[in-house]
Design goal:
Elements lengths: L1 H12 L9 H10 L4 H18 L20 H6 L2 H12 L5 H12 L8 H13 L5 H12 L8
Helix pairs in contact: 6-7, 7-8
Length: 157
């Protein structure tokens, strides 16, 4: 499913290709690209839930959460987000690429992935997808894009 998400993001969303295509046509295009129907369905469902979060529906966090509160990860979240990933999320909050709301969207979408393995590079893609459609986050998106595509010679955390 994660491969489908990255393919969609690179092919349609990130390149400003018109995304208002018929879902059946999109499914057929993805099938012809070699993706399995179940992965396509799961990816489209994942994106739909992301859009709901970005629109303020079904937030995965308490509305009155203190933005300065320390985030404690559950055991389930820690299974998906290793120490390196959690450190990177903290780093992004410190440089104000993420705030507590966008961080929680990222964590929600990571835990919704059906991925056997998940690493820092995968996390960066999820963060890009989360930030992409949020009004007012263009600068944060650009910073995240630079972090994703920079040479891996330099580690920031």
């Amino acid at each position: 499913m994660f491969d489908v998400l990255i393919y969609l993001f690179e092919t349609y969303i990130h390149n400003d290709v018109e995304m208002r295509v018929d879902q059946d046509k999109l499914t057929d295009d993805l099938s012809r690209a070699g993706f399995h129907h179940e992965d396509i369905y799961n990816a489209l469902n994942w994106l739909e839930k992301l859009a709901d979060l970005q629109d303020g529906h079904g937030k995965p966090f308490a509305i009155d959460a203190d933005p300065l509160a320390l985030r404690i990860y559950t055991d389930e979240e820690s299974q998906f987000l290793d120490t390196e990933c959690r450190g990177f999320l903290l780093f992004l909050e410190q440089i104000q690429v993420l705030n507590f709301e966008t961080r929680e969207m990222v964590i929600d979408r990571v835990t919704a992935l059906d991925a056997a393995e998940f690493d820092l590079e995968d996390l960066k893609w999820v963060i890009l997808m989360v930030l992409f459609n949020i009004p007012g986050y263009e600068n944060a998106y650009q910073q995240m894009e630079e972090l994703l595509f920079e040479d891996n010679e330099q580690h920031l955390h």
